[in-house]
Amino acid sequence: MSDRPEILERLKSDQKFLLTTHENPDGDALGSLVAMNGILTELGKDTIMFMRETEFPLPYEYRYLLAEDGAIHSEPDDLAERTVIYLDCGSFERMRVDSLRDGGKTLINIDHHHDNTEFGELNMVESTRSSTAEIVYTIAKDLGVKLSPFLADALYVGLVTDTGRFMYQNTGPLAHEMAADLLRSGVDVHAAYTRLYEDQPAGKVELLGRALSTLKRYDDGLLSIVHLTKTDFDETRSEETWTEGIVDFARAIEGTAVGAMYRQLTGEGREHLAKISLRSSDNRVDVSAIARSFNGGGHKQAAGATTDKSLEEAIELIRSGIREQLGDRQPTAA
Question: Exposed end of the chain (fewer CB within 10 Å): N or C?
Fold first, then answer.
């Protein structure tokens, strides 16, 4: 469903906005958030970004996009006057702030997840898009906003990360056309690649080594899973966000249908929780469906959840989810 005409009209006519995205934001979430904020600023709107204080520090590769003081952490006094826009958020529960649903002027939902619950009063859910950044890019074009180098860079971060550097099946012709336009608007591809995928902290490489040392495979290799404990983070002096990309090493193993990573969360009050990341390398396995069994969600090929289940319980749920979708059939490469 897409209420695109109505939403474009509201972006033109409304004057005050509050923007937010999902918890544990990735490149598409942050790139789309920052770019939409910049687009509205270019239109002369009063716009602010909201993120919980607990979401900071952001993953190191994205921190240049949004400093902690670039977002508010509590609802503003004038919330009732603001149109609230959720970006890249498949369900309201992924950034559940009840006052944002009930207290704003209107709730708008802009997203590309195929399992989006359409929780907005107005919804621009376009699941054929490679990323929410691609949707925001088309919005900028429809509104006649010229992209500055910074806005183009924010959109490029969303595009390149959610397409897996243009390798995932969600990469369509518009994604490449958009990339070309963003380059013409000032994106430095080498600098972007270096920020996103190089200049790695030493602790991140140590975490990778520890994770790979735990690799186990189940059901003739259909599931390949690694895990990390709180001790691993403590001993390597690493941040939780440094696990980005580790799960892809499990996914890339020959014969794997689903690559998974289970990591214990750190921080006071979270010791009993873990984060599960899932990646599909078989085009018949929808890992977002498996993630929903943990009350999570995501894309068909990339999904995740936060859970209080043990590693052993999580493994059995994932195995069960794979069996339900594949049955006795052998995996095929995506």
Answer: N
